[in-house]
Amino acid sequence: MRFIRFSSNFLVFAVAIVATAQIQNPGDDDLFRELEVTEIRVTMSAADKTFLLAEENRYAEIYVPADVTFTNTELNVVEVKNVGIRLRGNTARGHDKRSYKIDFREYGGEKFKDYKKINLKPDVNDPTMARELLSMHIYRKMGVPAARIAPAALYMNNEFMGTYLMVEQLDDEFIDKRYGHEEGFLYKCAYGATLQDNGQVYNGDLYESEMNDELDTRAELDLFVDKLNNTASVNFVSVIEQYFDVDMYLRQLAVEAILGHWDGYSYNKNNFYLFYNGQTNRFVFIPYDTDNTWGIDWVGQNWGTFDIEIFYHPSDPRPLTRRILEVPAYQSKYLLYVNNLLSTYFRSDYLLPLFSQLEALFDPWVAQDTYFDNAFGFSRTFFQNNYDYSTSGHVEYGLRGFLNTRYSSTDQYILSTDDAAKRLAVYPNPSTAPMCTLISSSAFSGVKVRDLSGKRVNYTLQQVAPQQWNISLANATPGMYVIQAGEQSIKWVVR
Q1: Cis peptide before 428 (omega within 30 of 0)
Q2: What dotted CATH number matches 423-494?
Q3: CB within 10 Å: which end of the chain, N or C, has fewer?
Q4: Rounded CA Rg of the chain
């Protein structure tokens, strides 16, 4: 199917849109240093190390006791006694460069730097070691709740085990750091979690409970899936906004599509979390596991040129993405966020310096990483080349090559349409109160609000996200107003 072209000068919702709950994505702290390699030295008995790495235990999820020392510029050298370490991951278990989870409380210890657990991922799929870090960086910049990731060098009993990514655990601590509370439920959604079938939601292998499990009857998840699939189209906007943070999802989807994150929900029904916010009574979509991005392909698609307008699997059910993008106003808002990305974080002047920093950061560690080529025959030369060029069958693009191709293909689409909503939008419109949210896809200087007679109207303006502002009028009466942002303008109705 193709979308209905929405070319009105302003968007009209039948109901007022519930504002997105603002989150606080934390930046670097003592442990997670995005542009610094943290040395992690794990000490355990020789027998426990043998057990952990034994072929017959490749799929075991048994912790062994260890002491761990962290070293970086903020921590200097900090030793944590009596932690637990085990193998983690799915496909990662098939490679000799294993993936690990460290639990600071497994053997009676305390949280470390306010973390219960951390993950150590080898990302053997990615020659640059940077794709997952870059993806989560952009998600966070777009205001989407996403894990922090930092480079790490792992040692076990003084043996260098290789270059890793340290990844924040998605749990109640993660939620508390973003939302300031731990009320609600959190589900880790595995491969096959389509959100299509109510019966699925009680399957703990597809929807694994990660928070407040003792209180969770899954009634809220069941109801959300029911409303998503069974609400008539005429009522869909008013209903889905009650149960789901649509705005956050559209932000997420814009990043998912731009980066070609095919191993997420929309294309591969995989790798996402759902957080039921007990204070707003709405679900929030949270992405994770983003190494299959930036041109890596295992499914026979060209992600540098993949259709930006319809980013979901063409045949398998994906009701969350499909039904949301079938709403013309949501489609326009999604494409606005796509355009926002092109003008902010997905552009060469922002990303090229970051690519260079990461390449220089990882390079000396990759040079001594004897496990680096374990999975796909990568070498240090592959690592260096893939910042620019394709390196193997499944790595179809280098980072800089993908950026150029994806930017060009998406920008050409944006330029080919006259949809004003991709440049400037206001929500809700019409509004039942003299308050709205203004979203712009391009930079501007100054905002003016006028009534239809041309008279200036007083207002307050508060920036709440990149290229997004809340506007509140003083003593406004019902009617039509014109909001001007730089050279752009849009009509706004207050009822």
Answers
A1: yes
A2: 2.60.40.10
A3: N
A4: 24
